[in-house]
Each structure stands twice: as structure tokens, then as C-alpha cells.
Amino acid sequence: MMSLQRTKLFPFFIVLVSFTCSLSLAMSSNQLEQFASEEEVFQLFQAWQKEHKREYGNQEEKAKRFQIFQSNLRYINEMNAKRKSPTTQHRLGLNKFADMSPEEFMKTYLKEIEMPYSNLESRKKLQKGDDADCDNLPHSVDWRDKGAVTEVRDQGKCQSHWAFSVTGAIEGINKIVTGNLVSLSVQQVVDCDPASHGCAGGFYFNAFGYVIENGGIDTEAHYPYTAQNGTCKANANKVVSIDNLLVVVGPEEALLCRVSKQPVSVSIDATGLQFYAGGVYGGENCSKNSTKATLVCLIVGYGSVGGEDYWIVKNSWGKDWGEEGYLLIKRNVSDEWPYGVCAINAAPGFPIIKEVASSSAI
Ligand SMILES: *[C@@H]1O[C@H](CO)[C@@H](O)[C@H](O)[C@H]1NC(C)=O
Ligand SMILES: *[C@@H]1O[C@H](CO)[C@@H](O)[C@H](O)[C@H]1NC(C)=O
Ligand SMILES: *[C@@H]1O[C@H](CO)[C@@H](O)[C@H](O)[C@H]1NC(C)=O
Ligand SMILES: *[C@@H]1O[C@H](CO)[C@@H](O)[C@H](O)[C@H]1NC(C)=O
């Protein structure tokens, strides 16, 4: 289960350790369904606190957090019990967000994103990327295996997922074009994109536009991430530049084709993903015909398992969320999802570097 497609990037022992941790918590929560004494749940809570080094200022706060934890645990058990296919369908777990209520979580991580493309003027400026060479696509693609994806990082309590998506997409195309994987500055995008709102959120169309207009972006090493609003640094280097931003317009095949060529920025409604612990997420808790977006992330590949087709999505909530920081989300679904599961196909965007645009050999 652990390694549908991850074998190379992470040392085996990390996989083993995280698997063992989630297994022990999962086992205790199964036992809780049978015994369910508050004392046992409290012990589990304390073990969880220790594991996540979570301390509370006073007893009142601890009691409040325990209430929320209990309610989340009930929810996690309920949702896991409803799974139809335990081998492929997504599962929930007691992760680091287990002491946050869904409302708090939404406020801290998932503020609804204003989609700039609903504004006609900005939409007109966007150029559509037309792919010619889309026949015989591989059955699966994983840009991580090709060394085009940097490590999953943790945005912290700064809603900068949009900036992580933008740097991730540029890191990908830069590696594909130049052969170098360079970790780029998320903080620069947070501080400097005038059309976004720093840690209060943003969208990738604007942020790619900033990088284009600025003539490039600095490295993470020179302009490191702080998880806070900051002032735009005048001495930022221009290490990697991009020439344009294009959008994928059309049915899912168009997105599949583009992902076979490079990592692609997308937005989704992530309302159901607070406790996501792995497996293929089928869009439970997303409304089918809406383009609502609460999280911007990066598709880094696609594949299939047990008859389920999925996208591999890089998130910025740390490696201790999901499948070592990644989400598998269902693709190739019926027309009931006009924008794809959780609207993942509502507005995909990707940067280009000229060499790629003029060649179809990638
Ligand atoms: C960060 O800056 C944005 C405006 O760009 C503002 O809306 C937000 O409140 C700021 N966040 C913090 C934590 O200061
Ligand atoms: C997700 O949907 C289920 C019903 O399918 C509901 O019980 C649950 O509260 C929803 N969760 C969130 C986080 O909205
Ligand atoms: C989505 O579907 C529901 C019911 O099927 C309908 O009431 C609603 O108007 C639709 N919304 C959009 C944005 O198409
Ligand atoms: C989509 O699913 C169908 C079967 O339901 C399969 O034949 C087809 O190859 C899939 N398409 C892609 C692009 O994976």
C-alpha cells in the first residue's frame, strides 16, 4: 500500500517508521470502537500529543482540544468504516491536524480562493496551451522518478500553497529543460507578487505573472522560507526565469497530455482532506459541478491501481500528511464531474521556458 509508486525518493526506513506510527494509532482507534471508554481515548490523545510534541497553555485549552480530538476520532473511524475498497480507497488518520476542528482547519488552511479567471479581462490575457503530440501517452508518469520534483515542504500556518505550487512547477520545467533541479524561493513569491495576498492566499496565474515580469526567481537557499508575510527583498537573484504561463483548456485528456510533459499547477477543493492518510481520494466532500477552489497544488504524475486511475499531487502540508506529503486523487471519472474530481481540471496552468515551446521532443 505504502508504495504505489514511491520507491526511490525516500529512504526505506522513513517509510517504515511512518507506517509503523500510523499503524499503531490505527490499531488503537479500532480498539476504541469496541471499548470506547473516555479513559482510553484520553490515553490515545496523550500519546498523540507526545508524538506531535503538542503542548497546551492551560488545562482548559487541553480539555477543549481533547473534545475536538474525540470528535475527529469518531469522524475518522466513521469515514474509514464506510470504505468500499480498503486496498485502494482513501483512508483517514489521526495526523498532526487531529486537534483542530474542521472549521478551524478551513480557516487556517483552506480559505476559499478567488479564481482570477472568473474576471473576463484577466482571463483574456491567458494563453491556451495547445498540445499537438498527445498520442500514445505512457500509462503512468511520475516526475519524482525523473528527478524533477523537490522535497515536500511544510507551509506552516501561512496560506502560501499557491506559491509552493508555482515554484514547484518552475522547478519541474527548469529541470526538464536544463537538467538542473534547483529549489526555488517560495518566500520571494509570497513577499513580492503584488496581486496576491502573501500568507492570506493567492493564485498561480498572478504569481507566474510576477516571476515573468520580474525576469526570474531566486533560490530557496538565498531567499529562504519563513512562513510569514515579509517585505520583498531588493537583492533577490534571478536564477531561473520563465517565458510564459499557459493554461490547459479542454477535457481531461488535455491535462493528461500536459502532465506527461511537465508538472502542472492546479487548484482543488480540499475540504475533505484534513485527515487524509493515503489511498485514492474519490472526491467525498466536494460538490460535483462546482469550481470551488480552496487549495493550490501541483500534479507531478499519474497512474492506476486496482482499476482506479489517479493523479499524483504534491501538497505543501509537510511529509507527515497523506502519502509522505502527496495526495492521490481520482481521475478518468464520469461526466458527473465536469471539472474533474474536486475541480482539479478547472484551471490547470503551467510555465514554459522557450526551448520547450519550440520543440516537441520532450
Ligand atoms: C499578510 O499580508 C496580507 C496582505 O498582503 C494580509 O491580508 C494578511 O493579513 C497578512 N497576514 C499576516 C499574518 O500578517
Ligand atoms: C464529508 O461528508 C460526510 C458525508 O458524506 C459528512 O458526514 C462530513 O461531515 C463531511 N466532512 C467535512 C469535513 O465536511
Ligand atoms: C449543480 O447541480 C445542482 C443540482 O444538480 C444544481 O442545482 C446547480 O445549479 C448546479 N450548479 C452549477 C454551478 O452548475
Ligand atoms: C479511463 O478508464 C477507461 C475504463 O473505464 C480505460 O479504458 C481508459 O484507458 C482510461 N483512460 C485513461 C486515460 O487512463
TrEMBL record:
InterPro entries: Papain-like_cys_pep_sf, Pept_asp_AS, Peptidase_C1A, Peptidase_C1A_C, Peptidase_C1A_papain-like, Prot_inhib_I29. Residues 1-26 form the signal peptide. The keyword Signal applies. Belongs to the peptidase C1 family. GO terms for molecular function: cysteine-type endopeptidase activity. Residues 45-105 form the Cathepsin propeptide inhibitor domain. Keywords: Disulfide bond, Glycoprotein, Hydrolase, Protease, Signal, Thiol protease. This is Cysteine proteinase. One of its GO terms (cellular component) is extracellular space. Residues 137-352 form the Peptidase C1A papain C-terminal domain. SUPFAM superfamilies: Cysteine proteinases.
